[in-house]
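Standup notes
- DV: blocked on the single-chain target, sequence here:
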Amino acid sequence: NIQTPDKTAYAQIVCTTDADCPRELDVCINNKCVDILTGEVVGDITKAAEITRGLPEITLEQAIATTIQTILGWAMLITIIAIVVAAIYYLKSQGRDEDLTKAKSIIVYLIVGMAIMAAAYGVVTGIAQFDFFRGDT
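- DV (later): unblocked, structure below
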């Protein structure tokens, strides 16, 4: 059961009449908009903090690194599948030189591509461990 804050969840709404409240089912009680169904104050900051309490704090650099690592991981998986397909093509060539050469070159290119992706993954993982934007002077 995931709760998402509505667009008024970050500031309390001060009201004088029910018409000042943002939704039809809100009523104005003691100059605060209250949800008539739940009895909760609309826009209560403590509710918004409660909803976001368990979420991890992630920096932009971490998000970018994780995205790149995920893409490279999927690319590696697809490359492994392609190597298996090329190996099957190699086995089905039945000694025809043209097909054997084609299958061998596909496998070589895939292995070179995997090496490049592994190096890129290592570089991204290494760079992600550095803290470039430290406040230390």
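- Follow-up: Residues 3-10 have pLDDT under 50 and may be disordered.
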